[in-house]
Fold this sequence. Notes:
The protein is mainly α. It contains 2 helices and no strands.
Amino acid sequence: MDEREQRKIRRRLAVLRHAEEVTGSVAATCRYYGGLIRRSPYRILIPHPGDWHAVVDLRGLSGTTTASASVIPRSAS
């Protein structure tokens, strides 16, 4: 098994553990890790600061898309 396959397995296990131990909800875990978005625009709450990459993957579905991302600063509370 090569490194790429091992990474995929580790990610899948992390998603399953998150659903079971943290959220107790597959839907909440999909929102946290990403999933199929059915509406636009979609807001993503970033769990911690740092560098992030946004990816649009049609996962084999037919269609086209245009995408953009912008940072909306948190309001001072």
